[in-house]
Amino acid sequence: MSTDGSVAAGSVAALQAALAAENAAIYGYGIAGSMLSGGERAAAMTDWKLHQEARDTLEALITKLGATPAPASAAYALPFPVSNAATARRLAATLEDGVTRAYLGLVAVADPALRAFGALATQPPAQRAVAWRGTTTAFPGMPANLPAV
Amino acid sequence: MLAASATTLPAFLVLSGCAGPDPLAGPPPLSPDVRGLFAAVTAENNLVTLYNECISVYSGLAPALRPLLAEHRAHLARLRSRIVEPPGKSLPAKAAAGASRPRVAGGEPAAVTQLSSAERAAVSANLRRLPDAAPDLAQLYASIAASEATHITALAEWHR
Q1: Nearest CA in chain B to A102
Q2: Crossing angle between the packed helical segments B108-128 and B32-57, to the nearest 10 degrees
Q3: Contacts with A113 from chain B: Cβ below 8 Å
C-alpha cells in the first residue's frame, strides 16, 4: 500500500472508521446474542467472532501505516431499545449495515489495494445483514435516502 | 478576407505552435469512467434480460427471482443516471435492442445455477472496475457487487 503522506492520512481515517464500526458491532452482538436462543444465538456468536477477527485485521493495517488503532468505547448507545428476539435480530442487521457502510468508505480512498480490500470487505456484512433481515437490498452500505432515479 | 478550410486550419495550428485541442478531430475519446459505466450498464442489461428470460420460461421461479430482478433494475437505473450520453454514442440498452435473447438452461435447478454463475461474474467484473473509477463511482460498483454477492446466497438458498 502507498506510503504517500496525504494518501496514508486518508487511508488511516477510513480504516479507523471501519474499526469503530467493527468495535460497535462487537459490543452490539453481545447485547443481541443475550436476547436470542438456539440457532440464532449460535449465529450471533459466530458473527461476533467474525467481527473480532475483522477488528484484528483492521488494527494490523492501521499499525502498518504507522498510526495507532483507536480503542473501543466502554459502551455504545443502541439505535433503539433491544428487549426481545425481534429487536435483537433488527439490531444485528443494523450493526451489519453500519459495518458495510464503513467498508464502503474505504472504497473511496486513493490507495488501490485498500480500495480493493474495502470492496471485498463489504460483502460479508452485507450477506449477514440479509441473513438477519431476511431480505436483500439493491445498494448495501449506500445511504438509503439517495434521490430517486 | 482570410478563409480557413478544413485542410488549412490544422496546418495553421501546427505552424502557430498552438497545442490546444483540434476542433476538427471530432469528439474527444470517452473517459475511463464513462467507458466503465458503459460496460457496467451492458452487464446489468444482460442480467436483467437473463432474469426476465428465466421467469418467462420457469414461472415457478418468479416469486424467488422477482425481488432480485427488481434490484438489478435499480442498479441499471442508477448506473444509467450517471451517464450523460456523448454525441454519437448510444447507451448499451439502445445499442443492444436487437441482440438475441439469452438461452436459459434446461430445468429450474440448472436455470438457478446459470443465474448464480452470472451473478458471480458480475461481482468480479464490478470489482475489476474499481481501480480506474472515480471514488464515488467505485463505491457504487462496490455496493452493486455486494448486492450481487447477496443474490448468490439467495439463489443458493433456493437449492436447499
Answers
A1: B139
A2: 170
A3: none
Cα–Cα distance for residue pair A64/A72, rounded to 1 Å: 19
Contact A108 B146 (CB under 8 A): no
In DSSP notation, A64-101 reads HTT--PPPPPS----SS---SHHHHHHHHHHHHHHHHH
- The pLDDT tens digits of the residues spanning B8-33 come to 445 544 555 556 667 677 777 778 88
Cβ-nearest to B139 among A107, A131, A135: A107
pTM value surpassing 0.90: no
Hey, what amino acid is at A25? Answer: A
pLDDT tens by residue, A80-114? 999 999 999 999 999 999 999 999 999 999 999 99
Cβ partners under 8 Å of residue A28, min gap 6 = A76, A78, A91, A92, A94, A95
CB neighbours of B137 closer than 8 A, spacing ≥ 6?
B33, B36, B37, B82
Cα distance between residue B100 and residue B103, in whole Å: 9
Residues 5-64, chain B, touching A (beta carbon < 8 A): none
Q: Is A94 on the interface with B (CB under 8 A)?
A: no
